[in-house]
Specification:
240 residues, alpha+beta, 8 helices, 8 strands
Length: 240
């Protein structure tokens, strides 16, 4: 059966499972001085311990921020995941496989708010919006290429060619999905590199599409660990 390609400019991020709270940082840190009694921190109001969390962040005592877990289901173009997988320490990934299932024809096309034109030299790039004509051309060329590549993919599958071979004709603009599991420390390192923020002590220049993913993940994390998130921002968005 011939499937018709569809196109989208958004990404999706869903927090599917978590064990993460500011109190996880507190009892992990206080075991140094309180031993097993530090578990009592679980039942205490974390507001009373803002100072400790800020101290740990400021002086980069990082291990207490590792005793938590968040699992996200992410839908994004394949090229985003290729950047994402550069983050290895404190991360676990499982992505849908083109070897074992036929891949759906959903492809990425930049939205009108995506800055299209790159100016400058390496290390000093600037991105500007681009003209209406450039946006129209980008959408048309991408959609035509996607339709052609997916038709070739279906032709190979119909001829009995294995999925793992046929997928080679598909572009990196194809949407994929994966589970990504991390802790707060590894997520902070990711955010420091993959988001732009005026509070950041070290500037970062991420590709917009992976920044979109990072911003959505940060929203979920901030809801789970508000004191830790606030300390991260107050101390220059540098992972401890």
């Amino acid at each position: 059966m011939t499937e018709t390609p569809s196109f989208r400019s958004d990404i999706s991020v869903e927090l599917v499972k978590h064990s993460a709270a500011d109190t996880d940082v507190l009892w992990a840190a206080r075991v140094s001085t309180a031993g097993e009694q530090s578990l009592a921190e679980i039942d205490k109001d974390p507001e009373r311990s803002k100072g400790l969390i800020n101290y740990l962040m400021r002086d980069r005592h990082g291990s207490p921020f590792e005793h938590n877990s968040m699992t996200f289901l992410i839908g994004a173009p394949i090229f985003v995941f290729r950047e994402f997988h550069r983050h290895r320490v404190g991360w676990s990934y499982n992505e849908e496989s083109g070897r074992y299932r036929q891949l759906d024809p959903v492809f990425y096309v930049p939205g009108q708010d995506r800055r299209l034109v790159q100016r400058g030299r390496p290390g000093k790039y600037e991105f500007v919006p681009g003209t209406a004509e450039q946006h129209a051309l980008t959408g048309k060329v991408m959609e035509d290429a996607y339709r052609q590549s997916y038709a070739a993919y279906q032709e190979l599958l119909a001829a009995g060619v294995a999925r793992e071979v046929a997928r080679a004709v598909l572009p990196v603009g194809l949407f994929s999905s994966m589970y990504a599991t991390c802790n707060a420390r590894s997520l902070m390192h990711f955010l420091g590199l993959r988001t732009q923020d005026e509070r950041a002590r070290v500037p970062s220049f991420p590709q917009r599409e992976i920044e979109m993913v990072g911003q959505r993940m940060e929203e979920e994390w901030a809801r789970l660990m508000p004191l830790t998130h606030a300390a991260f921002n107050a101390n220059g968005r540098v992972a401890p």
